[in-house]
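#struct-queue
[09:14] JT: dropping the first one here, sequence first, then the structure tokens:
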Amino acid sequence: MNIQNLMRQAQKMQKEIESKKNNLQKQEFNFEHQGVSLTMLGNYQIKKLTIDKNLVDPEDVELLEDFITLVINNAVEKISEEHENIMPKQESL
């Protein structure tokens, strides 16, 4: 394989990765935990957050805060994994 073929192959791979990244940025991810629902885009932007009315208790705001924190952290972790999966695995030489 000559250097030009390698360069073309690398450029093709780079375009494919960019396309996958762009698609991931627009993709919606849905998460739910104990009445807190979250829709987050692949660019980590929160599109929608809904909270079950039964969770709103002025005497226990910390529980609601914990649920919101948990669902956001789960979303960020999952989307980060998706971003990592786009990149091809580097093989050691």
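[09:21] JT: and here's the second one, same format:
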Amino acid sequence: MTRIVRWDPFRDMLAMRGQMDRIMDEWLKESNGAENGENGHSINTMRLALDVSENDNAFVVKASVPGVHPEDLEINFNENTLTIQGETKEDRTEESERYHLRERRFGRFVRSMTVPVAVDADAIDAQYDNGVLTLTLPKAEETKPRKINVRTAQQLVDA
């Protein structure tokens, strides 16, 4: 019996993009050049992965930053652009240690994202728990959805 499976080309494209991002990150990490890349950051700067969600009142941004102390994070919000930067420091190794596998990444990371609506910058909240940074960016009052009541002609006459 043949099953029909719905194909979502965008899911495949997103998976491919994720793989390409990992390949490019690894290539840039191994590069020894000191040239500047996007936004003037060194090409050895890692790109911080984000999860961004939205509800009626705010945008919520989550970033995994294990091993980074909260005081070593620099978070800025300017002209609707959020920028998070910091550094994961490499463990000191003994001369006698020989690695068989070394996959953890160390170095500076930076990520900027533009928020599509006005945000109340004075009310932005940052929380750090178990290596996860959670930023809550409250929407400005004028951008929050409002319920509009529809009145009937009779209600207008009665008023």
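[09:30] RK: nice, looked through the second one.
[09:31] RK: Residues 32-43 have pLDDT under 50 and may be disordered.
[09:31] JT: good to know. The longest strand covers residues 81-88.
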